[in-house]
Specification:
Blueprint: E1 3-9, E2 13-20, E3 25-32, H1 39-57, E4 64-71, E5 74-76, E6 81-85, E7 90-93, H2 95-103, E8 107-111, H3 112-123, E9 131-137, E10 141-147, E11 150-151, H4 188-200, H5 206-210, H6 219-227, H7 231-255, E12 259-263, H8 271-284, H9 287-290, E13 295-297, H10 303-317
Helix pairs in contact: 1-2, 3-10, 4-6, 4-7, 6-7, 7-8
Bound molecules: zinc ion (ZN).
Zinc ion binds near residues 174, 176, 178 and 181.
């Protein structure tokens, strides 16, 4: 019972890890998801990768306490079911039962953002705090809250879906069908689009020379232009930071975290984005919270998902012995 398996299933890649009981990654492997091959095929390949890692480590599956997996979309962690995932094309897939059949060990699943935040809260940038609010900014934005090592779920396990709150001043249509959702701006595609539209409105930017086809503009390129002192890139980060700060202000006030962790692809922007966020928060937060809530970037990249999944499985397996 000295090992854990943690899996981070994404729309593009599957990251699978073998960890010790403390959540230290011993081995990991990354494979393409190939979602169009269907859930049975994906789960069979995940089990195959997990078995490879165990054999490389020279251990038997009976030495694995539990298996955890984060999956995108809506998840019912009590039932071990992926309720729906647009990324994977899944609907009511009994993931935990199917994977348990293949591996012969207890399997626990949850939403991928919650597993990522759990990994950061327990063994990453939030490890020193009891109350951690984690936000991932990537293709979208979502959050999770960990209090004393436990995730907060809310009704129908839907707490933390902050990306689809409609915000004043935002006018773009969202993939969810609504207009003005937070993630139409505060996300990697949102950052790229804001910069692109600002240039298309007639402003000069070094991004124009770098990207003759502005549709190819990325959030990473906006960070690069920011470092050259480009005015469009600076305005983009200021605006995105302003909206992220507005969203965080209410979440911090309601939840009372000791720290906020920002992760996901757009977190690579680091202080370029978090600087504006911190400056805006100063004026938005009630005095009682203002000076006490540090905002950190995530410690891990790929590993947060597998560490979180593995430790979540350990926590969920709790009383289970043998
Ligand atoms: Zn939306």
């Amino acid at each position: 019972m000295n090992y854990l398996i943690g899996i981070d299933l994404g729309g593009t890649n599957i990251v699978c890890g073998l960890l010790d009981a403390e959540g230290n990654v011993l081995r990991q492997a990354k494979r393409p998801t190939e979602a169009d091959r269907g859930h049975e095929d994906i789960i069979r390949r995940i089990a195959g990768t997990a078995k490879e890692l165990m054999s490389e480590q020279g251990i038997d599956s009976r030495e694995v306490l539990a298996v955890g997996m984060g999956t995108p979309g809506r998840v019912n962690p009590e039932m071990g079911v992926s309720v729906s995932s647009a990324n994977l094309g899944w609907k009511n897939v009994p993931v935990a039962a199917l994977l348990r059949e293949q591996l012969g060990r207890p399997v626990y699943i949850d939403n991928d953002v919650r597993m990522y935040v759990y990994g950061e809260a327990m063994k990453g940038a939030g490890a020193a705090y009891r109350y951690v609010l984690g936000v991932t900014v990537g293709t979208g934005i979502a959050s999770a809250f960990v209090a004393d090592g436990r995730l907060h779920y809310g009704r129908t396990f839907s707490a933390g879906e902050i990306g689809h709150v409609a915000m004043d001043g935002l006018t773009h249509r969202c993939n969810c069908g609504k207009t003005g959702c937070l993630e139409t701006l505060v996300s990697a595609p949102g950052i790229a689009r804001y910069a692109r539209e600002t240039i298309q409105s007639g402003r000069n930017s070094i991004l124009q020379q770098a990207f003759p086809d502005l549709d190819k503009l990325t959030a990473a390129a906006v960070s690069w232009a920011y470092d050259q002192g480009d005015a469009v890139a600076i305005e983009t980060m200021e605006t995105v930071g302003e909206y992220l700060a507005k969203a965080l202000a209410f979440n911090i006030t309601v939840l009372g975290p000791e720290a906020v962790i920002v992760g996901g692809g757009a977190a690579l922007a680091g202080e370029r984005l978090l600087g504006p966020v911190k400056r805006r928060l100063e004026g938005l937060l009630p005095n009682v919270h203002r000076e006490q809530v540090p905002i950190h970037t995530a410690k891990w990249n790929d590993e947060a998902g597998i560490i979180g999944s593995a430790l979540f499985a350990k926590f969920s397996a709790g009383g289970e012995s043998s």
